[in-house]
Amino acid sequence: MKLGKHSTNMARDFNYREGFTYKNDTLSEVFFYNFKSSPINDQGAINKTDFQNALRLCYELMGWDVDTGIPTPVKLIELGLDWLINEVK
């Protein structure tokens, strides 16, 4: 489990350093629209506000900043990745 957390946090920091931000953590807009002419006519697949709230909860559970989606220094130190702290400032 720790190895998985280790690699996920390293990948997150790498992606942030390369220009990806929380704004990239989304779905295509089509997933937030109501469907037409289908068995679930006029029902949206995903509520955008609910999705954004779930994403913030996910960040919190991962030990990441809930506003930016970046692993917190505390999380990086916990995983022995303290050398990455300056990479994402």
Description:
By secondary structure, this protein is mainly alpha-helical. It has a single domain (2-88), classed as Aldehyde Ferredoxin Oxidoreductase Protein, subunit A, domain 3, CATH 1.10.599.10. The protein contains three helices and no strands. The chain has helices at 2-17, 48-62, 73-78. The model has no long low-confidence stretch (mean pLDDT 89).
Concise structural overview:
By secondary structure, this protein is mainly α. The chain has one domain (2-88): Aldehyde Ferredoxin Oxidoreductase Protein, subunit A, domain 3, CATH 1.10.599.
Strand and helix map with partners:
Layout: H1 2-17, H2 48-62, H3 73-78
Order of helices and strands: HHH
CATH classification class: Mainly Alpha
Please report the total strand number as a whole number: 0
> In the residues, how many domains can be counted?
1
Mean pLDDT over the full residue set: 89
Discrete helix count: 3
The oligomeric state is single chain
